[in-house]
Design brief:
Helix content is 36%, strand content 22%. By secondary structure, the chain is of the alpha/beta class. The strands form two sheets. The chain has an eight-stranded mixed beta sheet with strand order 3-2-1-4-5-6-10-8, sandwiched between helices. α3 links the parallel β4 and β5. α1 packs across α6 and α3 runs parallel beside α5.
């Protein structure tokens, strides 16, 4: 596949690029600072751009089979940054007629899993309150996806960890895995790449967790 990755210098984005190249895909990594991109490869194109101008992004998405975004706020005061950046990507994709988009969201944005115990429900609500601005930003991002003409998927992991790839995780299309408390960034990337050509995840939020 011919893929474009946004947020390629982050933990999940860098893993998407690394795993995609290892699987034989062609990858365009969109970055603001190419010096921060730690991945190299013969099938890698580095595209330098900020995410304020859809016209500037059109060459980065034109003709791609799928676009994967690991963009997100780096602080608790998100100020709508993820929704704004995603809106720019959507405009560029729609201008080029590129349909497939997968983004990283978060488990608390999805529905509460049926069967979770009191401990998990309480922890979820505490985290949701502490990171309210971040999750509000992600909800607005998902609303932008729903209003778009793209074939989108919002991947919703719980708390992220820096651990090796396992490939052993649970996914719930339209829901949230019960007692899904953690997921490695490597496995988030693995799940997104696996969903890129999965029609069953189109226009869906997908909970992913161990």
């Amino acid at each position: 596949m011919n893929l474009t990755v946004f947020g390629a210098t982050g933990g999940v984005g860098g893993e998407i690029v690394r795993q995609a190249l290892s699987a034989g895909h062609r990858v365009t990594a969109v970055v603001r600072d190419p010096a921060r991109l730690e991945v190299t490869g013969a099938r890698l194109e580095v595209f330098r751009a900020d995410l304020t101008d859809p016209e500037a992004l059109r060459p980065a998405v034109a003709g791609r089979d799928a676009v994967l975004s690991a963009l997100g706020s780096r602080n608790r005061k998100a100020d709508g940054v993820t929704a704004r950046m995603t809106r720019t990507i959507l405009a560029a994709m729609e201008a080029e007629g590129v349909r497939r988009l997968l983004v990283v969201s978060a488990a608390p944005v999805g529905p509460e899993p049926e069967g979770d115990g009191l401990l998990d429900r309480t922890a979820r609500r505490i985290v949701s309150a502490a990171l309210k601005d971040v999750y509000d930003d992600l909800r607005e991002m998902e609303a932008e996806l729903a209003r778009s003409s793209t074939d989108w998927t919002a991947v919703r992991p719980p708390r992220l960890q820096n651990k090796p790839l396992t490939g052993a995780y649970r996914t719930v299309v339209g829901g949230t895995p019960v007692k899904g408390r953690f997921l490695a960034r490597t496995d988030v990337a693995h799940a997104m790449l696996a969903m890129a050509d999965d029609p069953g995840t189109v226009k869906q939020g997908v909970g992913v967790a161990y």
